[in-house]
What we know:
This protein is an all-alpha fold. The protein has helices at residues 2-8, 17-24, 28-49, 54-62.
Amino acid sequence: xxxxxxxxxxxxxxxxxxxxxxxxxxxxxxxxxxxxxxxxxxxxxxxxxxxxxxxxxxxxxxxxxxxx
Length: 68
């Protein structure tokens, strides 16, 4: 569990001092939302790197709703 929390807050290392202060001055609910959004963005990036994003393109092509 400790490792998960550490990994979830890893993005704080990349913030400057002002942004880090802003994060710690947020309510607990706002902090949880920021951490969740960061985790989702990281997961999306991993999917993109491994080619998982192609399924959306294939779905659009097969449903003939592809525009572009």
